[in-house]
């Protein structure tokens, strides 16, 4: 499945959340990630993220699609992280 993840966490936890999310998805902008992920890996990411979070004030939002081809993405301005995977 294709996922866009957006997080909003306290300043003390931002670095740890960034490091965790980069293990699973592609970092595209501050607190925003995207990429293909299996259901099992997504659940693993959620569990690890919940362990870092203060659920009273932090949040994670997942936008899910079966495939990236069903999602239109338009970038205006500077693209922070290009997802070109040239082999």
From TrEMBL:
Any GO BP annotation: maintenance of CRISPR repeat elements
Cofactor (UniProt): Mg(2+)
E.C. numbers: 3.1.-.-
GO MF annotation list: hydrolase activity; metal ion binding; RNA endonuclease activity
Coiled coil: none
Keyword Nucleus tagged: no
Stated name of the protein: CRISPR-associated endoribonuclease Cas2
Species the sequence originates in: bioreactor metagenome
């Amino acid at each position: 499945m294709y996922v866009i993840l957006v997080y909003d966490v306290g300043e003390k936890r931002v670095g740890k959340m960034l490091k965790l999310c980069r293990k699973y998805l592609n970092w595209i902008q501050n607190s925003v990630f995207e990429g293909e992920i299996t259901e099992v890996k997504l659940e693993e990411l959620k569990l690890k993220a919940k362990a870092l979070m203060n659920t009273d004030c932090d949040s994670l939002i997942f936008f899910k699609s079966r495939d990236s081809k069903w999602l239109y993405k338009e970038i205006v301005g500077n693209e922070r992280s290009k997802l070109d995977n040239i082999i």
